[in-house]
Amino acid sequence: MARWIPMLMACAALAAAQPHPELNDGEAHGDPPFLLEEGWRPLLNGRDLAGWRGDGKGSNEWFATTAIRFERFLSPTRLHAIPKPGGTMLNGPTGRTVNLVTEESFGDLELYLEFMIPKGSNSGVYLHGLYEIQVFDSWNAPEPLKTSDGGAIYHRWINEKGVGGAPPLRNASRRPGEWQSYQVWFRGPRFDSSGKKTENARFIRVLHNGLLVHDNVEVEGPTRAHMNLPEAAKNPLMLQGDHGPVAYRNLYVRPLRPIVLR
After folding, report:
1. Has residue 261 got a pLDDT over 60?
2. Whole-prediction pTM value?
3. What domain range is 141 assigned to?
4. Which of 23, 62, 184, 220 is an S-S bond match for 111, by CB 3.0 to 4.6 Å?
5. Total domains, the chain
């Protein structure tokens, strides 16, 4: 028996070293406690994408799934869906599809959502369909951080160059294949009775994975790749779908309230 022990130990070590797919449950488990507070409501029904529509040229390949599988060693740039409807949405098999937009429009709001991206992927969350918080693989990104890094408020695009925007105050990005979160306090632009804009939109506060990345940032106008619609008191929410694989789950909104520091 003794002569078999080294062989058994070697087999066990080899098995442990083999890459295993990571199954990430797409249902609403482990929600942050603050979601039990009054006023929050989900934007996903846990079955399908009712209340959402595709925006852009081409077919809408977004679909609802129960969970996401990420294979860190075998296919680190892809996300794989479990073939069963559920409370997570994925932007198709290749991550190159239209943007996804809510049928409902929102004014001032608080937003909470979770997302997952594989290695090197890119997406964005557009408040009012116009003002983007960047979703990007910035795991171990070098300093200084840029307006294209994860957690940034993306720049505007004027005369074929980026203008403005705000890099995150810190790099809060997790490694590819892990669920991440944004919590956003957003105040929309203001207009007078004639329709003239009197105040710009403002990200009052943004948390990335629970860490503060923006504090009272004004946005002078729509950021790059925004929806083709004017600034207004109310507009829809948009998720970018054509820059690489991305999954979203646990999307909740409520009307903007005063911030209570925790």
Report:
1. no
2. 0.89
3. 21-255
4. 184
5. 1
**What is d(CA 140, CA 191) in angstroms, rounded to the nearest whole number?**
41
Asked whether 101 and 234 are in contact (CB, 8 A), the reply is no
CATH number for position 189:
2.60.120.560
Residue 260 inside a domain? The answer is no
Does 194 map to a domain? yes
Is 1 among the domain residues? Answer: no
Q: How high is the mean pLDDT of the chain?
A: 90
Q: Give the bridge partners for 197, in sequence order.
A: 191
Give me the sign of the Cα torsion angle 89, 99, 205, 106: negative
Looking at residue 24, its pLDDT comes to 53
**Which of these, 71, 121, 113, lies nearest to 95 by C-alpha position?**
121
Report the distance separating Cα 134 and Cα 208, nearest Å. Answer: 11
pLDDT at 114 over 70: yes
Under a CB-based contact definition with an 8 Å cutoff, are residues 70 and 116 in contact? Answer: yes
